[in-house]
Structures are given as C-alpha cells and as structure tokens.
C-alpha cells in the first residue's frame, strides 16, 4: 500500500510542521517560566518524594493505587518503543541533531507534565464503580467548561490507545521476538494478546502491581547494557555530543545510507519522537496519576514530572548516544534494526547487544500495552459509561494480534497523526488553566 503510506506521510508532515512545533515548545516554555523553572528547582526534591512514594494511605488521602504505582503505570506507557525504535527513527530521518531537540522537549516537557498531572488531580472525581477518574477530559470539561473539547480529547485518546499504544507496540514486539526466538508474528501476537488480556482484566489494581515490579527491572536491564557500551566507547562520546549539537543547528549532507536533512527536519523528527516518547503535552499520563492515593496534587505532579526525566534524559539519551558513538547512524537502517545494529557492534560477544535490545523492546512494548489500555479504557468509560468497558478490552486485545504483521512505515505515520490530533485539545486546556497552576504553585510550600 505505497499510496496510503505516502498519503499518511504527507498528513503527518503537515501536522508536525512549524505550527505544531511552536505550539508544543511554546507551551512548555510558557509553563516553565510561569512555574519559575520548577523542573530545575525541584528535581532533587521530586526524587526524594519518589523514593517514599509507596507509603500507607493517610487519613485525608483518596485514590486507588500508591503514588509510586501511579508513576510506574504512567511510565509503563511512556517507556516503550519510542525509546528504542522512535529515537532510531528520529536520527535516521533527521540526523543526530534530532536527539538534541528530543532533549529540549524533555526539559521543557517536565513543566508541561507537572501542569497536566496537577490539573488531573485537582479535577478528578469518583466514578460510578467507586474508582478515581481523572485526566484531560475532566479538567477540560470542569475547568474550561468545554464539554465538546473534552469529548474531542477522549475520542482521540481512544484512537491513540489503539494506534501508538497498541499497533506500534505489537509490530515492534513481533519483530523483536522473530529476531530473538524465531517466532512468527501471528504467534507473538497471540501470546502478547493473552498476557495483556490477563493483566488488564484485573483493573487498575492489578495493572499497578504489575508495573511497579516490571518497569524498574526492564529499565535497568536496558540502561546497564547501554552504559556498558558507552563506557567501552568513552573516547567517542565527546565527538558524538558535538555532532548531535552541531547538526541540530546545521544541515546534514548525505553520507553513507543517510539521505541528508535540513534543520527543519531535525527539529520535526526530534520534537515528534520526543513527544511520542515522553508524552508531555499529550495528556495521557495524567489519566494514570489521577488514580494515585494522595490529597496533595502538587506532590504527585512532582513525582510524575520525574517520568519525563527518566524517559527522555536517561533512556532516550542512552539509545541515541549508542547509535551515534558506534558510528551506525548513517547506515541506512532505521527503527529497531538501527538500534539493534548499534548495540550489536557496541557489545561484542554472541549477540549480547541484539539480545538486550530485543528483550528490552519486548518488555517495553508489553508494559506500554498495559498502560495505554488503561488510558483508552478511562476515555471509553468517560464517553460511553461502564457498559462499554468490556467491549473495549476485547477490541484492544484483538488488535494486538491483528497488527503484529503490519507495515512499519504506515504505522509510524499513523502515530504522528494521532499524537498530533490528541495533543491539541490538551494544550488548549493547559494554556487556558495555566493561571490556576501558577497560583497553586506559588501558594504551596512544597513547590516554592
């Protein structure tokens, strides 16, 4: 279907042009200034809160899962194929400079994520089943009084849960399993669908317990492997950083298998993949944090802000630096193949690099299924009520199996389109409710 790929590529290119870049980056900068650089001032304090985020429920606390479980549930959806395949795609298409723009989106995205989560907890409510409900659809409706915009976001979120949150993961996990175990895509799809179905049918309590244990382990496996490569290539790291920064502001000529890129392409791919990876401005993570056991929105927002740091500043950076330091960024490969090739060169031995990438991708994709299924479910319940919940779960599970063997280019174009459309209503709400966030931040001693 080359025509469909070309058409969706054109649409994605239009949506992620200068207006979207300015909207997301401008919103992040505006929120950073309004919050007086909270991501710089309060990162150490946020990490301190994180390490005691699994405490007991207090007298005034409301919620369904611990603050730590809320973060790991959000990270389960955030830390995914974007960290492995997305970074590689950005570099292969926009050059090494795309990683620089991912960093920039990560830094300002921390302020955006703080604001999203704060509003989510501020306007959350108890649902018909007694569980906490929150997210952009609630603060758009209750805060802005724009029901139609809230519905727009919810519809887009459901679509995104079935696209970026499902199809991309299924396709990537099938490719990894084929490389690692020789499994055919339909077999991998069936296994993944069964396991994901078991977890999501247990609701947010089971999701929180699974992600709390799995997310830290999977992140550490991947990070340790990447750091080992960088340590063995430490002499190349300064040159790699120079190339990344230099190419962020200068066009890159064609070299090897790299077709060349203008600065605008570097920015476009860096911003698009950065948002897809850390989800700041997208409005997804606040849905998970709304279930946190707390009565202090500001504290949970600080904890949630750390998710962007872990995702982009740590994991995406490791992927990008490994690709550049091993010198394979212009090999002509892209997505998972590029990252696997880089790790394979970086870690000598019987396929250790490929094993780390494949295992990491499988675990990342599996947890992303779980997190995004919860986001989509919450939006379906907002739109249609509890009666639609079971039908959504079955559709989600079935799509895992169906999309395991789809074309990668088409899926990534659909990712860009869905992420762009979903972000707009949320960004409008963030701007419209920004003074509420600023006021609260200036009156809360934890945030001063």
Which properties best describe this structure?
mainly alpha; 448 residues; 20 helices; 2 strands; globular; two-stranded antiparallel sheet
Give a short overview:
The chain has 448 residues and is mainly α. It has helices spanning 2-15, 18-34, 38-41, 43-50, 67-78, 81-94, 97-122, 136-144, 147-181, 185-200, 203-232, 237-249, 263-278, 285-289, 297-325, 335-346, 352-384, 389-402, 408-432, 434-443, and strands at residues 125-126, 132-133.
Characterize the structure shown.
With 448 residues, this protein is mostly helical. It has 20 helices and two strands. It has helices at residues 2-15, 18-34, 38-41, 43-50, 67-78, 81-94, 97-122, 136-144, 147-181, 185-200, 203-232, 237-249, 263-278, 285-289, 297-325, 335-346, 352-384, 389-402, 408-432, 434-443, and strands at 125-126, 132-133. It has a two-stranded antiparallel sheet.
Strand content: under 5%
Query: What is the strand arrangement across the widest sheet?
Result: 1-2
Distance linking N and C termini: 54 Å
Number of helices: 20
Which series of helices and strands comes N to C?
HHHHHHHEEHHHHHHHHHHHHH
Instruction: Describe the largest sheet.
Output: 2 strands, antiparallel
Mean pLDDT: 88
The total count of strands amounts to: 2
Helicity, as a percent range: over 70%
Structure classification: mainly alpha
Indicate the radius of gyration in whole angstroms.
Answer: 20 Å
């Amino acid at each position: 279907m080359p025509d469909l790929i070309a058409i969706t590529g054109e649409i994605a290119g239009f949506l992620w042009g200068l207006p979207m870049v300015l909207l997301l980056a401008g919103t992040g900068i505006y929120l950073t200034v309004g919050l007086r650089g909270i991501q710089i001032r309060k990162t150490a304090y946020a990490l301190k809160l994180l390490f005691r985020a699994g405490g007991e429920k207090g007298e005034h606390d409301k919620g369904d899962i611990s603050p730590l479980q809320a973060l790991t549930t959000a990270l389960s959806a955030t830390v995914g194929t974007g960290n492995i395949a997305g970074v590689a795609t950005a570099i292969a298409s926009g050059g090494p400079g795309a990683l620089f723009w991912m960093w920039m989106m990560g830094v300002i995205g921390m302020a955006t994520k703080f604001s999203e989560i704060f509003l989510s907890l501020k306007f959350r409510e108890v649902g018909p089943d007694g569980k906490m409900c929150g997210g952009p659809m609630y603060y758009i409706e209750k805060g802005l009084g724009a029901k139609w915009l809230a519905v727009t976001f919810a519809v887009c979120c459901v679509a995104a849960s079935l696209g970026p949150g499902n199809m991309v993961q299924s396709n990537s996990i099938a490719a990894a399993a084929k490389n690692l175990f020789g499994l055919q895509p339909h077999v991998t799809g069936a296994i993944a669908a069964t396991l994901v179905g078991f977890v999501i049918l247990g609701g947010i309590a089971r999701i929180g317990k699974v992600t709390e244990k799995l997310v830290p382990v999977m992140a550490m496996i991947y990070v340790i492997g990447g750091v080992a490569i960088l340590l063995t290539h430490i002499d190349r790291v300064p040159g790699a950083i120079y190339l990344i920064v230099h190419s962020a502001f200068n066009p890159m000529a064609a070299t090897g298998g790299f077709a060349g890129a203008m600065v605008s392409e570097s920015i476009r791919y860096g911003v698009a993949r950065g948002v897809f990876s850390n989800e700041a401005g997208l409005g997804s993570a606040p849905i998970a944090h709304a279930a946190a056991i707390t009565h202090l929105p500001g504290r949970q927002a600080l904890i949630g802000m750390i998710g962007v740091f872990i995702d982009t500043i740590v994991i995406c950076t490791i992927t990008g630096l490994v690709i550049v330091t091993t010198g394979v960024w212009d090999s002509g490969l892209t997505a998972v193949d590029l990252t696997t090739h880089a790790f394979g060169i970086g870690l000598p031995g019987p396929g250790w690099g490929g094993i780390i990438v494949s295992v990491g991708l499988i675990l990342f994709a599996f947890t992303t299924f779980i997190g995004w299924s919860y986001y989509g479910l919450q939006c379906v319940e907002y739109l249609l009520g509890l009666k639609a919940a079971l039908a959504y779960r079955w559709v989600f599970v079935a799509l895992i199996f169906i999309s395991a063997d789809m074309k990668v280019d088409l899926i990534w174009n659909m990712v860009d389109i869905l992420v762009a459309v979903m972000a707009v209503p949320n960004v409008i709400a963030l701007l419209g409710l920004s003074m509420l966030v600023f006021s609260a931040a200036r009156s809360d001693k934890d945030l001063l």
